[in-house]
Design a protein that fits this description.
The complex is a heterodimer.
Chain A lengths: L2 E4 L3 E5 L4 E3 L1 E4 L4 E8 L5 E7 L5 E3 L5 E5 L4 E6 L8 E9 L11 E2 L3 E6 L1
Parallel strand pairs in A: 2-12
Antiparallel strand pairs in A: 1-4, 3-9, 5-6, 5-10, 7-8, 8-9, 10-11, 10-12
Chain B lengths: L4 E3 L2 E4 L5 E6 L6 E7 L6 E7 L2 E5 L6 E5 L5 E5 L8 E8 L7 E2 L3 E5 L1
Parallel strand pairs in B: 2-11
Antiparallel strand pairs in B: 1-3, 3-8, 4-5, 4-9, 5-6, 7-8, 9-10, 9-11
Classes of the chains: A mainly beta, B mainly beta.
């Protein structure tokens, strides 16, 4: 069975500073990797995903994450954060079979609350 | 296109009661998954439905059950409510079984 560990429960940063939210996973099979963002009183929104190919994936709002298979990590980074990035961020994994088919069951980490201060 | 909508947004029930939560999938999506998110935790997979049949289940007891209808809307039913069932229940739909999930805003259930 897979598991996800988000190493920081809370990350406070100042506006325009860089940020890294750390995520490590454990799985005995191939996985897909995701980052979701959750704003207060809302559901989860997909931020970015790694399915295959280039290990560096980017979102439209400046976040990026790099899949590191040897370290089983998928850390999320942004070079300059905005106040509007304040939210809770969840890393998730989804196991696949040898053919790359998954079954829609995500395993989430505990979440990291990112607070951006002016 | 409409997104995933869930009803009600908030609900208060008493221990031992039964509850039904509803979800309307995003247009064209034939797969729906339900997750439980306890306070301060990440979501946990309850089950998934594909074309009206259960297509995978997480580590939840049988008193958690579901339905998916021909129009791909869905229900989550919980019997014999316990205090620990208090959580945000999230519904997510996807175009295919292994496509990215689109989440609704959830139903906040409080069991007293």
């Amino acid at each position: 069975a897979q598991s996800v560990t988000q190493l920081d429960s809370q990350v406070p940063v100042f506006e325009e500073a860089p940020v890294e939210l750390r995520c490590n996973y454990s799985s005995s099979v191939s996985v897909y990797l995701f980052w979701y963002v959750q704003y207060p009183n809302q559901g989860l929104q997909l931020l970015l995903k790694y399915l295959s190919g280039s290990t560096l994936v980017e979102s439209i709002n400046g976040f990026e994450a790099e899949f590191n298979k040897s370290q089983t990590s998928f850390h999320l980074r942004k070079p300059s954060v905005h106040i509007s990035d304040t939210a809770e961020y969840f890393c998730a994994v989804e196991e696949t079979n040898a053919g790359g088919t998954s079954y829609g069951k995500l395993t989430f980490g505990q979440g990291t609350i990112l607070t951006v201060h002016p | 296109e409409t997104g995933v909508t869930q009803s009600p947004t908030h609900l208060i029930k008493t221990r031992g009661q039964q509850v039904t939560l509803r979800c309307s999938s995003q247009s064209g999506h034939n797969t729906v998954s339900w997750y439980q998110q306890a306070l301060g935790q990440g979501p946990q997979f309850i089950f998934q439905y594909y074309r009206e049949e259960e297509n995978g289940r997480g580590n939840f007891p049988p008193r958690f059950s579901g339905l998916q209808f021909p129009n791909y809307s869905s229900e989550l039913n919980v019997n014999a409510l316990e205090l620990d069932d208090s959580a945000l229940y999230l519904c997510a739909s996807s175009l295919l079984v292994n496509s990215p999930l689109h989440f609704g805003n959830g139903t906040r259930l409080t069991v007293t």
